[in-house]
Amino acid sequence: MNKANQVLYQVLIADDEPIIREGIRDAVDWAALGMEVAAEAEDGEEALELALSRVIDIALVDMNMPFMDGIALMKRLREERPDCRFVIITGHDEFAYAQEAIRLGVKDYILKPVNAEHLVSVLRSVREELDERHIQSNYLKKASEQIEKNIPLLRERFCQEWIDGQLEESEAVEQLEFLGLPPKLPVQAGIARWPELTVPQPLMKESDRQLYLFAIENMIGELLQPAAHVLFRDRTGHIGMLLWDEIPAKTCADAEQAVQKYLKLSIQMHVEPVRDDSGGISAAYEACREAVLRDAQLSPLVRRARQLIQEQYADPELTLESLAAALQVSPVYLSRTLKKELGTSFVVFITQTRIRKAIQLLNGTDLSILEIAERTGYDSQHYFSTAFKKVMGVSPNGYRKGLAFQEEKGG
């Protein structure tokens, strides 16, 4: 170890005989060994108290001390100061006892009367061991600091590999904890697409694009709070998201509106549930990618209409006419435009939205069928059950019983 960086190791001498303590203290050039005598004790209890009140690197311990013998002292210090190194001071008649202590992990022993050369030799050996530990500790600290600095980069690489299907779920879960993320499968995946990132001839300088992209990420991150999530940039330029808490559908619309309002930029954001299987992450992410590309083709009117439906589906009074009035267009024009761009009618779209939410409630809550009907915009349980069966091929009760049977069979 470089002398300029050398650690001055702290030594405790614990022996009930003053002459032994004095002899040890005077027999060694402590500074030459990179050590100093920090404390002396005449019994085990005092030695323990002194060792716990400061950082002691090396304890020279008499085997036979009053109040607390050497073995008891070392056992206590082993628990409280695991990095402390022990050297036993022992008489000939305690030699077998000392050997037992050595088997317990004590560094070495010194026979009384203390031989200075042997003592220095043992201390030099202890110092070398402590130097190696100190160097190792410094390397590990630097490595830890480097990892901390690179965690965002490691997360990005990890997320990219996961959405590409290159990681098994068990392998991914192990890495999640290391990366400071919840060690389980996310419940949703998402994408935010800024068209400027994928155009052949960008309209702004690269430095400006990166600045705006960072601002978009920050805005999305704020809106996703307090849901556990990670944002990353995939290799196609999209902002990717993995979420461990479900976010409301309107969060995507809120993010799009916030970016439009404050940054004057247009983005498309979409999230999808993650299936509980090995390909769930890749499938959900691909579905998001397709959805934002489809969304990019939609007119502002249809995007706004879809957002209002997703926000107000629980209102039984939501109709094509009321939606058209809110958007300040005629019902006929709105109906024709929805059909053209979404490939479906207003009635089918709102029904699909309501049934999709009903399925989430059936899966994740103990709400009654009537309560679920009321929360998804249906005036009566009968009307809800009829609509649900038409879409799903089974009644809400039948769907829930099927879930229970699957869980029972799986358990």
UniProtKB/TrEMBL annotation:
Residues 10-127 form the Response regulatory domain. The modification 4-aspartylphosphate is found at D62. Its main location: cytoplasm. It comes from the Bacteria. One of its GO terms (biological process) is phosphorelay signal transduction system. Keywords: Cytoplasm, DNA-binding, Phosphoprotein, Transcription, Transcription regulation, Two-component regulatory system. It is found in: Cytoplasm. The keyword Coiled coil does not apply. InterPro entries: CheY-like_superfamily, Homeodomain-like_sf, HptR, HTH_AraC, HTH_AraC-typ_CS, Sig_transdc_resp-reg_receiver, Tscrpt_reg_AraC-type_HTH. GO terms for cellular component: cytoplasm. Pfam families: HTH_18, Response_reg. One of its GO terms (molecular function) is DNA-binding transcription factor activity. Residues 303-402 form the HTH araC/xylS-type domain. This is Two component transcriptional regulator, AraC family. It comes from Paenibacillus lactis 154.
